[in-house]
Design goal:
Structural class: alpha+beta
Strand content: 15-25%
Strand order of the largest sheet: 3-2-6-5-4-8-9
Order of helices and strands: EHEEEHEHEHEEEH
Largest sheet: 7 strands, mixed
Distance between the termini: 27 Å
Number of helices: 5
Shape: globular
Helix content: 25-40%
Number of strands: 9
Oligomer: single chain
Length: 196
């Protein structure tokens, strides 16, 4: 699986029992108090679980067949593009990557080789670096003779909108602005996918 996960951080929850939780007197009143606390705790857990489930059940924006969420980014020369400006004009390939990812480097070579073909097919290539500074990316690009523009998603806003959990990730968008594919390598049938 040619995909490296981007760490989002993990939130930990702690539950502290009362100091005397295991030293309660064995009388009916104590049992009633323990049962009451346990019921309250279980109720809290169930409410939290269903709340999270409802949030997760919401349909993601980046689902195949949905309209691609719009965004605005700058390239290394501070030229600004907006995704929606290509709608009804050109199909678009989004490529999310980082300089430290070895599989990304392989895919960058593939895109470098295919770039002229993409231009002939009137496909717009948007190569988006995720979470790195301009100096690091600029040095990387210059040292590898990359022929296409590279855009910076410094704060990972666009990557978050597209639910990018790892790199490399491709997202193919047709002329109508609908998402047609997502994966970690460019499919051979990419022309067919974006011409639907």
């Amino acid at each position: 699986n040619k995909n490296i996960f981007i760490s989002k951080g993990i939130k930990k929850m702690k539950h502290s029992f009362p100091a005397n939780h295991f030293n309660i007197r064995r009388d009916p009143a104590s049992y009633r108090e323990v049962n009451r606390r346990e019921k309250l705790f279980l109720t809290f857990v169930l409410i939290s679980f269903f709340s999270v489930s409802c949030i997760q059940a919401k349909e993601p924006q980046d689902k195949i067949g949905n309209m691609a969420p719009d965004f605005k980014l700058q390239d290394l020369n501070q030229n600004t593009i907006t995704l929606s400006s290509y709608r009804d004009k050109q199909a678009v390939i989004l490529f999310f990557w980082t300089t430290w990812c070895p599989f990304c480097r392989e895919e960058l070579k593939v895109l470098n080789d295919k770039y002229q073909s993409l231009l002939k097919d009137d496909v717009k290539l948007l190569v988006i670096n995720v979470g790195e500074g301009i100096r690091i990316v600029d040095n990387f690009v210059k040292n590898r003779s990359i022929v296409f523009s590279v855009f910076l998603d410094k704060d990972t806003t666009v990557a978050d909108v597209y639910s990018i959990l790892g790199v490399p990730t491709y997202i193919l968008i047709d002329k109508k602005g609908q998402i047609r594919f997502r994966g970690n390598s460019l499919p051979q049938e990419y022309k067919k996918l974006i011409s639907q």
